[in-house]
Amino acid sequence: MALDLEQLSSISREVATSIDDRLSVVSVAGTEGGGNRVELLVTVEGCHREPCRHILNVSRAEVHQFEKEVRSQLQAALMDHRAG
């Protein structure tokens, strides 16, 4: 069964904080038309080019898969942010 938005929000915030305390998950929303994907709006606090925003599109899969996807995409976004 797909996770609900409240569960996804909580998990994604925990993952973001564990990677870098400057990452803030601002919102989690279902994708247009429903389905098994959600979009996460993430900001990087204290960015020199405020506002730094990233939108991630991840699966609503079971909890471990969701955590893995969020972690991978947040790490990639942070690396991209640092390189940019």
Description:
The chain is α+β, with helices and mostly antiparallel strands. It has a single domain (5-83), classed as Double Stranded RNA Binding Domain, CATH 3.30.160. It has 2 helices and 3 strands; from the N terminus they run αβββα. The protein has helices spanning 5-19, 63-83; strands spanning 23-30, 37-44, 53-59. A 3-stranded antiparallel sheet has the order 1-2-3, covered by helices on one side. A hairpin with a 6-residue loop joins strand 1 and strand 2 (37-44). Helix 1 (5-19) packs across helix 2. The termini are far apart. The model has no long low-confidence stretch (mean pLDDT 88).
What class, by secondary structure content? alpha+beta
Q: How would you describe the shape?
A: globular
Question: Which fold name corresponds to the CATH topology?
Answer: Double Stranded RNA Binding Domain
- By CATH reckoning, the class would read Alpha Beta
The total beta strand count reads 3
Beta-strand content: 25-35%
Measured on Cα atoms, how large is the radius of gyration? 12 Å
Major beta sheet, strand line-up: 1-2-3
Number of discrete domains: 1
SSE string:
HEEEH
Q: Which segments are poorly predicted (pLDDT under 50) over 5 or more consecutive residues?
A: none
> Can you tell me the CATH architecture?
2-Layer Sandwich
> What is the helix tally?
2
Fraction of residues in H or I helices: 40-55%
What average pLDDT do the residues reach? 88
Largest sheet: 3 strands, antiparallel
Q: Kindly report how far apart the N and C termini lie.
A: 38 Å
